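#lab-general

N.A. 3:47 PM
ok so I finally got the sequence cleaned up, no stray characters, all 161 residues accounted for. can someone with queue access submit it? mine expired

B.Y. 3:52 PM
send it over

N.A. 3:53 PM
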Amino acid sequence: MPNEKRHTVEYLLTAMLAIFILYCMVYISNTIDMPEYKRCLKEQGMAENEIDIINIYNITMKRAENEEKIAFTKSTLKYVGYGLVIDVVLFAMLNVELSKKYAQERMYGDAEWGKVKQFKRISGKKKKFYFTDHSPWKYLLHIKVYLCSFKKVWKEMKNGK
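B.Y. 4:20 PM
back already:
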């Protein structure tokens, strides 16, 4: 398998998510600048610069149902900045995750792409069997848990609970 790193779909989905995050932050900034939100804060005895997530969510959902438009308000730039910070963290996480090299079920971080010459010498007789890969104790534990729970449910059904 050639050493091709094509992660176009991952980057495309992440870019779409980043745009959605920015859109949500602008929409939330519009909600925070609404008089209705400020009135809710005063009713709860909170300062105007404090944030109440529940009220923000409720008012934003009402705005979304009424299909209100987005406007540029005084806190829009601040919330777009928050959104950009979230987007930078998102892209950094994606770059770290996509730069890792994986070897299935054994290790990660130092795996390399194999060459044809390396795979020619591998045969079924040389393959190592790891007992921990398919432990019979795992299946016995599952059976025991299933039987214990079945007995408990059966007793409850018999007693009419």
